[in-house]
Amino acid sequence: MTIAAAVTAPTTAPLHVAPRHAAQPRAAPRRDPSPLNPNAPAQQALRTAASAPPPSSSSSDSARAHIANLDKVLGKPPQVPRAAANNTQDPEQEPLSVRHGLLNALNLSFFVPMPGMRARGTAADEHMSPRSLMHMQQLLSADSPRASPRSTIAPRWRSLHGEGGWAGLLDPLDSDLRRELLRYGDFVQAAYQAFHSLPTASARHRGLMLPDRSYRPTRSLFATSALSMPPWAKRPNTPEWLTQQSNWVGYVAVCESEREVARMGRRDIAIVLRGTATCLEWAENLRASLVPLDGESSDGAEAGAEEPKVARGFLSLYKTAGEKVKSLSEEVMEEVRRLMEKYKGEQLSITVVGHSLGAALALLVADEVAATIPDAPPVAVVSFGGPKVGNAAFVDRLGSSGKVNVLRIVNAGDMVTKVPGVAPRLPHKKEQYQHVGAELRIDSKNSPCLRPDAGPACRHDLEAYLHLIDGFTGTGRPFRHDARRSVIRLLQLQRGNVKKEYVNRARELGVDPTAPADVGRSMAYGNCAVASPSS
């Protein structure tokens, strides 16, 4: 007798239980599936209940209560069937956002089948790349960054910070290094967000949202252009920040969480610099002639060809002081010395990270730290889509310092990484621009979300860089199947370069690709303020 029959039988009927080990030869009877079996379909349970003789009301209530108690003991929730026949809906056809919630319906482990989830088996979904849609559940997660697990990197922090030139860590990409790169990339995204939210705000009133709460921003940084906008070029409706000479360009932050310091093996000082945002910054990018680091040009002096030289525009933004702010060079050096004195006796590191123009300025920062601070800690430069900055002598100067290691992350097809500034124009001299440091090469064509013919803006976009780093495993290898980074911001910034199937799927799941990009929705940020000067 089945358990279901036993618990639903009238209480007056005697129940005979045969001995457990007694041999009872008999023909195999037809057994109805037990309602206690969690794998039994709800429809089969309904058919079994319909074929059984209707018990009395009191006995049915008692049986249901008894089954519920058994379910609690077994730790398995009951299978609740759909009640109304007219409203019965196959759970396979039920909207994914209802079954798993919007967060699960939109997240990058949706492209590969995940345990406990079932992809829709329709033929219409099979043409999407990769193999299935299950990874989209994680790709478009709006409220959770789903960051990779943090492992202790204290024993190997020096190699992850560039000692040895990242040999053996780039191809295939080391998982700990990937996580560090994504964190520093998010720091730059925070700089972009802080600037565009209030471009004309002073440092004391600027809000900054950091993606890692273990870091605290300690000083705002400003870059000033030596150029000025001519009166004829100004338009009545042009925002003031587009033409002003001094603009907020980034910040300095330090790791203050003792737990994170122990995990990383040192206290890290991060110098974060955004890319080009104003008209005068664009104009400085176009000043691509090579000048000595001290700013004094040596035109006509053949001997000067061997001295370190950098792009005139980058050096101008780095060294020029504004009416109310110091130069970027002065601000950075003062803050680095202050933090080194504050944490004297501790193991320190300096990480200078930037995107585009910020990557070029990061090289100038690293060079000055190594040249002017004798006891400076190890310096690593993380460059996202950075242009060439100086000549071969400048490259040798950085390499011979013994303190600076440079990692350039380059997206194939990103034109900015191939030119001395923004314009591919070289001076008619013997000196030529050269790249510096190790290279991590990624490619938009490897992304399951981006179109293979993604345009130049997408190939240079920072969020596209971070998306590709999150999925990069090695040259010639497929996109990482367990990539966790949300692509909501990528979808909103690069909608025209995202595959149509993904845009349509996002709309179906309730994500508006036309909504303004909000970095705070795609990352778990904490709020903090930047003080200037630091206290």
UniProtKB/TrEMBL annotation:
Segments carrying the region annotation (Disordered) are 1-95
Indicate where this protein resides in the cell: Plastid, Chloroplast
- Cross-referenced InterPro entries: AB_hydrolase_fold (IPR029058), Fungal_lipase-type (IPR002921)
Biased composition, Low complexity: where in the chain?
1-27
> Does Transit peptide show up as a keyword for this record?
yes
By its UniProt entry, which Pfam families does this protein fall under?
Lipase_3
Organism equals Urochloa decumbens
Q: What is the lineage of its organism?
A: Eukaryota, Viridiplantae, Streptophyta, Embryophyta, Tracheophyta
Q: Say which family it is in.
A: Belongs to the AB hydrolase superfamily. Lipase family.
The protein in question is named Fungal lipase-type domain-containing protein
Name the Gene Ontology biological process terms.
Answer: lipid catabolic process
* Gene Ontology CC: chloroplast
**Where mainly found?**
plastid
* GO molecular-function terms, A-Z: phospholipase activity
Q: Which residues form the Fungal lipase-type domain?
A: 271-421
Q: Which UniProt keywords apply?
A: Chloroplast, Hydrolase, Lipid degradation, Lipid metabolism, Plastid, Transit peptide
Give the residue spans that cross the bilayer.
none
